[in-house]
Amino acid sequence: MLSNLASNVPAALLLKGWAARFASPEHALLVLAMASTLAGNLTVVDSVANLIVIEQARDRAKAGFRACARVGVPLTLAALAAGTLWLAFLAR
Fold first, then answer.
1. pTM to 2 decimals?
2. Which of 32, 36, 45, 67 has its CA 20 to 30 A from that of 18?
3. What's the pLDDT tens digit per position in 8-19?
4. Measuring CA to CA, which residue among 48, 44, 43, 52 is closest to residue 7?
């Protein structure tokens, strides 16, 4: 959620020290990297790249906030769930 509010890089830098305090800092940092990267796909306003694509496609397609969220929210949640499972069980 912090990535969506503040942006990915500041959020990751802010949480880097917090993640280092976990029993497995490497694992926590991998989760932080994954979450901050995938968070930009949640809605259209969560990434500058999303806004650029929407702006450039304006004349060719109608893609508003709700249309993007209908795809972005479930896709992001599924990717986060799959990534969390992968990190929890396979990356040990």
1. 0.70
2. 45
3. 778 778 888 888
4. 48
